[in-house]
Amino acid sequence: MKQQSGFTLVELVVVIVILGILAATALPRFINLTADARISTVNGMAGGLRSAVGVVQARFFATGTNTSPVTMADTTTVAVSTTTGIPTGAAAGIGAALQSTDGFTVDYTTPTAVTFRPTAGGSATCQASYNGTTGAVTVTTTGC
Which of 50, 65, 89, 107 is most buried, taking the most CB atoms under 10 A from its CB? Predict the structure, then answer.
C-alpha cells in the first residue's frame, strides 16, 4: 500500500483565511496611493515651473539684450518681461518654456494666476499656480 501525502482541507482553509486577512489590511493602503500620486504629480509640475523660470531668466540675462521674446538654445522662443526676464503668464511665455504640459489642464485666463491641474482629478484644491509677474509658483494639494 502506498501512502499519500499533501495538505488537509483544514490547512488549506487556514491559509486562505490568513491571506484574506492580509489582503484586507493592505487594500486601504493601496487605495490611498492615488492621492499620493496626484500630490507628487502637482509637486513635480511645480518643480518644472520653477526650473523653467530659472533657465529662461538665466538666458535672458546671459544675452544682455533685455528684449522679448528670448530665444532658447533649442530655438524655442519664450515671451518674457523685458525688465525681469520672467516668462509671462501665457502659452507663449511659461507654456513655451515648459514645452510640454501633457497630463495637465492649463488655464491661462489670468496671467498672474495660471493654473496647472492634473487631467485626472485636478481641482482648485489640487493644482500648481504660476504668477506671470513675479515668477512665483504655489502648490495646493489639500484636495488631491
Answer: 89
Residue 116 has phi, psi (to 5 degrees) of -125, 105
Cell of 88: 509671462
The three state secondary structure string of 71-123 is ECCCCCEECECCCCCCECCCHHHHHHHHCCCCCEEEECCCCCCEEEEECCCCE
Stated pTM of the model: 0.77
Q: Please state the separation of Cα 24 from the chain's center in Å.
A: 30
The per-residue pLDDT string of the chain (144 residues; one tens digit each, 9 = 90 and over) reads 677 777 788 888 999 999 998 888 877 777 778 888 899 999 999 999 999 999 999 999 998 888 889 999 899 999 999 999 999 999 999 999 998 999 999 999 999 999 999 998 878 899 999 999 999 999 999 988
